[in-house]
């Protein structure tokens, strides 16, 4: 039974070893073959699945004595290619398989598109694989390598495939050594060496590639080290490299701490800077988002990374983050609390972090804001002055009023009930005025309860020990409950404020997103949203330099100018937001800063859009100029050369031509000049269209009259073109010569791509179909259908671009202006030109033109 289970169990996944090259030619294939020979000498069963030696004799010599699995031959577009035979390798079941060039693309139509997918199948079959790949083929570094070298890498492999390897070995070589190796002919053939050394293999390029490879492998080593420490429950920091963590609160001391931490990290060559902000899990005690955003930009400018972690106990969260990232040093700012506040509230975050830091060095950095905080910030309230006065008044009046009421009921109520009612009064005062007024109320209530209700009454003497304890408990409970109630009230207020801010910022983000979707400026909507959010009379965006109003939002209806206040908020370095209306409280400055940041981003986006709009015509003109030069250099030169050759031959005194030869040369010259004239006319018409200088003379035109003239202008007037139902179609409103040009160009294109022997069908119909006694047709649809290979949907818009030739039967004639000019002329006449599929195969060009009014036709 055990043997049966073992037989049906899936094979273990094979192990993968990757030789990562910093650049082509560093010797990764040679190293792989050397490892294979070493394993074979130890008795391992090694086969070569796929090796590409590129004619390097030293690499080919390493293949001696190694078994090579025959490759699989495949035909692709008439050419024979060879690929790795996965089935043969799996059937052979060796111990180790060598597979070169992991990022290689396979021949289309096979089992897998990429060779790394072949390797995955071998690993899944339980075979160990040794492979090679260059750093420029890693997916995450592909764009970076292209920027460095200027050479795009079309073959890539996902980083995760390489990261999952059991072993990664970097194959590296100094740039000068690699260039010498190339100069000796050990990498490329002699005719390619000079070009390679002056382009891809420049010292700067090789140095950058080498650094990318080292950093990528270092990151992989860090991952392995973290995994090992996690598996073995190692919590202590291993000082493999200096990592400096700076704790940010969003306070004004942040920039000082960041720069100090950056200097500490820079003292070592491989130092790393990490900034972390700890936010509470309830999201209530938040710092200024604008300040944190500025500090984050500073961290990233200095080459560090910014992180946010959630934790209610800040020292524990900081040290947990530091240990998780194997940090060696932690930078904190000294407390902003004054001496009195530190005495009353105990040790702060810094002292607690130092006590629990163990093997992490903690730097307490002094700054200009040290000791300048408020006294007892936990008792600081955001109540208005009116509520504060009302709270203290109620703290004085409520106990006396409650005493008067309870004195009248002392025969029916006992001491416990009296104490609970006083307790309820203290809670009410806490809700109204906060902890300070509740403290006053609890002290007065304790004295009144002692004097009027605890025997002996009307004295402050307490006769029974039990009553002494009851009074102390009352005072303690009153203070505790009032503090908790006050704190809960403040947290509720803060939560409501945070929710309101979040909703406002969400709406703000939605406003910006909708503006981007519609390509409209977001500034007017942002100003309107700012004015409505803060209840202002007006919000204006001004230029600091000129004082001009760039945008403005005003409230509708009459305004009360009495007590109007003005607030200025900077937007970037060149603009100001002027907010007019009520005086804004200080706690709304954070929201204002967020609004200003969105306005600054919208301004920058508008500026970039304006620049892009200015550049777009230049780009289009440059593209057209480049394409025109290419067309002139080939397509216009060809008929001109043929005409010149024919005329030159006729004028040559050294050769006597027969009448037939003379006629043939004249026909060639005439045909070439006609073709040249047609090309020049197309180019001129396209330039007029783009310049908006095309003059139209619209008139009713019958299709059965204009089609023969269009066919006569073709290069082959006897081409197979079959009209269908043109005589019954309504007349169209068009410019007759231009319509003739459109039909001639579209029919010429259809003939070029049509199936041999098949006619091009030209039909017309009214749209919508007129009903008896109803309205006449508004449009006429003309269809030019061929039986060619058709046009894929992805290319249907491209065929109408100037200088595009996407045909598959003749891609060498013409400048690719026919369809582009035809669509432009059709749109100039108020019509359209679109592409449809021909039923049964082929392409149909659908030309839609306005129908001529009946009164004009008659």
UniProtKB/TrEMBL annotation:
Q: What EC class is this?
A: transferase
Which Pfam families does the entry link to?
DUF4118, HATPase_c, HisKA, KdpD, Usp
Compartments reported by the entry? Cell membrane; Membrane
For membrane topology, the record states: Multi-pass membrane protein
Superkingdom, natural source: Bacteria
- Location of the Histidine kinase domain: 631-853
- Asked if the record carries the keyword Lyase, the reply is no
Record protein name field? histidine kinase
Q: Where are the transmembrane segments?
A: 389-409, 421-454, 466-485
Start and end residues of each stretch annotated as Disordered: 550-569
Q: Where does this protein come from, organism-wise?
A: Kitasatospora acidiphila
Q: What is its EC number?
A: 2.7.13.3
Q: Which GO terms describe its cellular component?
A: cytoplasm; plasma membrane
CDD domains attached to this UniProt entry: HATPase, HisKA
Query: Which GO molecular function annotations are given, in alphabetical order?
Result: ATP binding; phosphorelay sensor kinase activity
| Catalytic activity reported | ATP + protein L-histidine = ADP + protein N-phospho-L-histidine
Q: Which Gene3D superfamilies match?
A: 1.10.287.130, Backbone structure of the membrane domain of e. Coli histidine kinase receptor kdpd, Histidine kinase-like ATPase, C-terminal domain, HUPs, P-loop containing nucleotide triphosphate hydrolases
Q: Which UniProt keywords apply?
A: ATP-binding, Kinase, Membrane, Nucleotide-binding, Phosphoprotein, Transferase, Transmembrane, Transmembrane helix, Two-component regulatory system
């Amino acid at each position: 039974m055990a043997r049966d289970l073992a037989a049906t169990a899936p094979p273990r996944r094979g192990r993968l070893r990757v030789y990562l090259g910093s650049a082509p030619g560093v010797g990764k294939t040679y190293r792989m073959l050397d490892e294979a020979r070493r394993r074979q000498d130890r008795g391992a069963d090694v086969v070569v699945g796929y090796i590409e030696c590129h004619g390097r004799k030293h690499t080919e010599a390493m293949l001696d004595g190694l078994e090579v699995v025959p490759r699989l031959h495949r035909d692709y577009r008439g050419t024979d290619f060879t690929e790795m035979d996965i089935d043969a390798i799996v059937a052979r079941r060796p111990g180790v398989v060598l597979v070169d060039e992991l990022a290689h693309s396979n021949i289309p139509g096979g089992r897998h598109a990429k060779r790394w997918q072949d390797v995955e199948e071998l690993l899944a079959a339980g075979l160990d694989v040794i492979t090679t790949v260059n750093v420029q083929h890693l997916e995450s570094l592909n764009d970076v390598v292209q920027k460095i070298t200027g050479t795009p890498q079309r073959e890539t492999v996902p980083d995760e495939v390489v990261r999952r390897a059991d072993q990664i070995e970097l194959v590296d070589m100094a740039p000068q050594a690699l260039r010498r190796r190339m100069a000796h002919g050990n990498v490329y053939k002699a005719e390619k060496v000079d070009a390679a050394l002056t382009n891809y293999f420049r010292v700067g390029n090789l140095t950058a590639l080498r650094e990318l490879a080292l950093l990528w492998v270092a990151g992989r080593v860090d991952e392995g080290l973290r995994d090992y420490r996690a598996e073995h429950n190692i919590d202590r920091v291993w000082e493999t490299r200096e990592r400096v963590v700076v704790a940010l609160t969003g306070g004004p001391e942040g920039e000082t701490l960041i720069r100090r931490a950056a200097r500490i990290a820079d003292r070592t060559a491989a130092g790393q800077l990490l900034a972390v902000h700890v936010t509470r899990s309830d999201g209530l005690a938040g710092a200024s988002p604008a300040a944190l955003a500025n500090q984050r930009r500073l961290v990233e400018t200095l080459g560090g990374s910014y992180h946010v972690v959630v934790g209610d106990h800040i020292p524990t969260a900081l040290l947990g983050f530091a240990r998780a990232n194997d940090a060696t040093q932690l930078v904190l700012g000294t407390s902003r609390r004054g001496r009195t506040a530190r005495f009353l509230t105990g040790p702060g975050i810094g002292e607690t972090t130092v006590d629990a830091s163990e093997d992490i060095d903690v730097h307490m950095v002094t700054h200009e804001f040290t000791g300048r905080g408020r006294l007892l910030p936990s008792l600081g309230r955001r109540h208005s002055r009116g509520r504060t006065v009302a709270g203290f008044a109620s703290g004085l009046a409520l106990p006396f009023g409650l005493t008067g009421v309870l004195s009248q009921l002392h025969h029916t109520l006992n001491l416990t009930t009296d104490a609970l009612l006083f307790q309820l009064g203290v809670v009410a005062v806490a809700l109204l005025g906060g902890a300070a007024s509740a403290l006053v109320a609890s002290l007065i209530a304790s004295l009144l309860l002692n004097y009027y209700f605890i025997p002996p009454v009307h004295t402050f003497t307490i006769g029974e020990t039990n009553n002494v304890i009851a009074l102390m408990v009352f005072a303690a409970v009153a203070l505790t409950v009032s503090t908790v109630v006050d704190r809960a009230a403040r947290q509720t207020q803060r939560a409501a404020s945070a929710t309101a801010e979040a909703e406002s910022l969400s709406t703000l983000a939605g406003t910006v997103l909708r503006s981007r979707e519609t390509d409209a400026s977001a500034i007017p909507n942002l100003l309107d949203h700012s004015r409505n959010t803060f209840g202002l009379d007006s919000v204006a965006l001004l230029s600091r330099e000129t004082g001009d109003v760039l945008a403005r939002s005003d409230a509708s209806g009459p305004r009360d100018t009495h007590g109007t206040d003005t607030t200025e908020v900077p937007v970037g370095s060149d603009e100001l937001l002027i907010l007019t209306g009520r005086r804004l409280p200080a706690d709304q400055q954070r929201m204002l800063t967020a609004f200003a940041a969105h306005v600054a981003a919208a301004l920058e986006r508008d500026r970039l859009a304006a620049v892009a709009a200015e550049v777009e015509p230049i780009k289009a003109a440059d593209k057209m100029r480049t394409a025109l030069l290419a067309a002139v250099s080939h397509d216009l030169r060809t008929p001109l050369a043929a005409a010149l050759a024919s005329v030159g031959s006729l004028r040559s005194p050294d050769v006597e031509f027969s009448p037939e030869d003379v006629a043939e040369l004249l026909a060639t010259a005439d045909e070439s000049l006609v073709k040249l004239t047609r090309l020049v006319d197309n180019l001129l018409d396209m330039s007029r269209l783009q310049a908006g200088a095309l003059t139209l003379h619209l008139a009713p035109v019958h299709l059965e009259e204009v089609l023969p003239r269009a066919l006569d202008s073709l290069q082959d007037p006897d081409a197979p073109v079959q009209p269908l139902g043109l005589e019954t179609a309504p007349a169209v409103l068009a410019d007759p010569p231009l319509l003739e040009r459109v039909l001639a160009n579209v029919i010429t294109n259809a003939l070029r791509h049509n199936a041999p022997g098949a006619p091009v069908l030209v039909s017309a119909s009214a749209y919508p179909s007129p009903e008896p006694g109803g309205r006449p047709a508004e449009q006429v649809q003309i269809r030019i259908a061929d039986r060619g290979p058709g046009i894929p949907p992805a290319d249907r818009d491209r065929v109408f671009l100037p200088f595009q030739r996407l045909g598959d039967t003749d891609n060498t004639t013409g400048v690719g202006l026919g369809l582009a000019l035809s669509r432009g002329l059709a749109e100039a006449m108020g019509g359209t030109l679109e592409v449809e599929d021909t039923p049964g195969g082929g392409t149909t060009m659908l030309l839609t033109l306005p129908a001529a009014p009946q009164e004009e036709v008659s």
